[in-house]
Amino acid sequence: MEEKHPFGHFDDAAREYVITRPDTPWPWINYMGTRDFFSLISNTAGGYCFCRDAKFRRILRYRYNGVPMDAGGRYFYIKDGDIVWNPGWKPCKTPLDTYECRHGMGYTRICGEKNGLRAEVLFFVPPDARCEIHRVKLTNTGKTPKRFQLWSFVEWCLWNASTDMENFQRNLSTGEVEIEPDALYHKTEYRERRDHYAFYGVNRPYDGFDTDRETFIGMYNGFDAPQQVLAGTSGNSVAHGWSPVASHRFDLELKPGASDELIFVLGYVKNPQEAKFTAPAVINKAQARKMLQAYGTPSGADIAFATLKSYWDDILSRFSVASVVPELDRTVNIWNQYQCMITFFMSRSASYFESGIGRGMGFRDSNQDLAGIVHLIPERARQRILDIAATQFPDGGCYHQYQPLTKRGNNDIGGGFNDDPLWLIFGTVAYIKETGDFGILHEPVPFDNKPGTEVSLLEHLKISFAHVTDNLGPHGLPLIGRADWNDCLNLNCFSDNPDESFQTTENKTEGSKAESLMIAGLFVAEGKDFAELLAHPAVAADPKYVAKVRSAVAAMETAVKTHGWDGEWFLRAYGYYGDKIGSNENDEGKIFIESQGWCTMARIGADEGLCDKALDSAVEHLECEHGLVLNTPAYTHYIKDYGEISSYPQGYKENAGIFCHNNPWIIIGEAMAGREDAVWRHYCKITPSFTKDQALRKVEPYVFCQMVAGKDAARPGEGKNSWLTGTAAWTWKCVSEFILGIKPQYDGLLIEPCIPAAYGTYKIHRRFRNAEYDITIHYTGRHGKHFIPYTPGRHTLEIEL
Ligand code: BGC
Ligand code: NOJ
User: Fold this and answer.
1) pLDDT score at 4
2) Annotation marks residue 487 as catalytic
3) Is 425 exposed, middle or buried, given 0-12, 13-18 or 19+ CB atoms closer than 10 A?
4) How deeply is 761 buried, as exposed, middle or buried, from its count of CB atoms within 10 A (0-12, 13-18, 19+)?
5) Which candidate in 53, 487, 566, 712 is catalytic?
6) For residue range 375-424, what is the model confidence (pLDDT) as tens digits?
7) Which one of the ligands is nearest to 413 CA?
8) Which end of the chain is flanked by fewer CB atoms within 10 Å, N or C?
9) What does the pLDDT look like over 163-194, one tens digit per residue?
10) Residue of 484, 503, 645 to mutate, ligand 1, most atoms within 8 A of C-beta
């Protein structure tokens, strides 16, 4: 086993992943921050931070597509004699005597040792603070006294991460700094419209500094050979334009066995308009100084770290399992929930696969993300639902994305994705089932954020539902619009211009017959949930309306059975001209996963055996060693009528990749069909803690990927797009509700597991509203269920099913 896990291992007791060598097959990253200041940090301290918006309020500069990989971060250089090294190995890459990186919940600890000097750096963002803390502990582990030097180094981004990479005629003249004994301040553009600045401070007088990159690094040097460090000096440079940076230097001495500690604070401050300056052109530093004082002592930093720890202890104390499968326990108790939180915070904006520039908050993405966090941070889920709903239009359609900074819909991308509205029902149902907060349905929510247009959230749900029934195609199935969940199945796009984006180019939906079986399944599943919500006594909707909802659902089931069944599986779609897609009649793309997932979750035609048959077909045609591929056979050439899906090489992304997001749809379908062996097998294949070959997987072994290369790819099993993916919330829903069987209902918890009997005895701890449940479950494979009505207080139960 060891040689297959050469890069690291889990430390479950500490809730950490321990990386034991720095040259991982891809940077293995972590996130810091819980509210509006966020950081990405790799196992070699690469990465960047931003406040609220990764595009507009970028604090550290980062180089994408960098050579070498992952250039830029928070670097500490140590010069001990002639040797220069970094605790995190990069950028100098001087071989270390020991190296360890521990990614924990909201913090990362990197420790390097060289020639009897140990440097441990703890990086974290205190909850609700707008700063990173870098706590550097240096220890002389040798037998002789040590004299050495330490430099800090960060490079500032000129706020807008996009123009920072493009508009050099302007950028190279704008940079401005202020230098103070406590901190180096970055105040580019502060004089104009801006009211924010950044700073990098330290809790002790420094022996030298630099704020100009060229002075510190040297015009033709890399980060691995800064000229000041090599010379053992600082330039005491003051940046005027070009590229502002921040570096402090310390000349240090340590007796054998002795330790020293420096605490750095890298922060962001926004000032009120009337308190921007303390003198002409001098920024008001009061808030920065407050942060430096609060965190710049060992006890201050201890308290901040303890607060962070207790934040995550509290979050992760809400749902836990103790089973006989350690991989399952660590996924459920730690990493899956952590990833759900991070995905909720970031949406799809900033990762090592998402630039933080391109995408805002997706309407469908953010609604699905809710399923992973409603039990953890319900009050934030509530706000998110209201923000999302406010980007809807009066006809039930919506903006596909909105910007986190303004919460306004994104006009460049627009709307017209016909699955979008239904996800609002999905997210709201998940929230109310968890919290019992039916009151949210009465919250006034505007259309397109326009004041004065408010209707209740319940009305928004009704128009979401109606958006499907108002847009049916020739077979009574939902028209697909620009695309459904599969953004790359572009049936109304007909793009033959390689310079246009499939995602934004104009579509020919007028007169189109393109219908989606994925939306049909989603509509039936969500329609049933919607009817149940409406009929609940706490809502007591007009029975005539509830009956209308039910009959629309029944009509859709009939349409699917009549026009959406291909003989062995559910069709995927009808194209613009009414041609079949995802049919045995096609040469390629004969079967797709999405319609098998959604139609089996909706139990369409279950009595006639359609669900079992569709699931069998998924196993037969889509399953491979590493999971279920999206479609098969993969498209081997570009098809104008299908769009982006056929532009990908076989086995990648939406063209027959293992798109992990939709594997749980099949797993839940399997669970609803009561087939626990298939459930467990599919689940283990996509769950990273079961990974057998870290080098092949390439990306972090502690978080789910959006995509793993499928059977037709050059390297099946190679993972990509880790961290920010709907896979997090869907695998959470799948494992918590459908495998372990803890299903929140409006009035209690329904226990209905589907797990192989060999693993069927486990304990669950579940906080549910104002109750704490300790449940011991013995699942024997009889497919029983047990309802626990909600009552506040502590409850201990033992259930055999
Ligand atoms: C990707 C999709 C993604 C879409 C929207 C496409 O290129 O393949 O996975 O949803 O872009 O950004
Ligand atoms: C990623 C996008 O974020 C999501 O909205 C989409 O559904 C999937 N890709 C599938 O295309």
Assistant:
1) 58
2) yes
3) buried
4) middle
5) 487
6) 999 999 999 999 999 999 999 999 999 987 888 888 888 899 999 999 99
7) 1
8) N
9) 999 999 999 999 999 999 999 999 999 988 99
10) 503
